[in-house]
Amino acid sequence: MSELGALTLDYRAAFLRYLPRREEAALTSGYELGRGAVTAGVSLLDVARIHHEILLDVLRDTRPEEVIDVASAASEFLLEVLATYDMTQRGLLGGG
Questions:
Q1: Burial (Cβ within 10 Å: 0-12, 13-18, ≥19) of residue 71
Q2: Which of 12, 16, 34, 72 has a C-alpha 20 to 30 A away from that of 61?
Q3: What is the pTM of this model?
Q4: In a structure prediction context, what are the per-residue pLDDT tens digits for the chain, which is 96 residues long?
């Protein structure tokens, strides 16, 4: 399986674990996914595409009254995944 294929499967599993209860442990999984993606050289655009595809799949099965909650949770999860990318960029640019 390709790096992107494995990331997609892991991302889906972690996101689906996070959605129902929004627990810190599941959010930490998102952070670890992002860290692994940076280490593996996965582009930020690939991560965004994976997130979007998974979110669309989830929204297809989401009741209309829950869409806002799911979108909010998706945003929280994505920010955690992207935290390592942000830290890496700041380190490279020497900013804080």
A1: middle
A2: 34
A3: 0.89
A4: 888 999 999 999 999 999 999 999 999 999 999 999 999 999 999 999 999 999 999 999 999 999 999 999 999 999 999 999 988 877 777 755
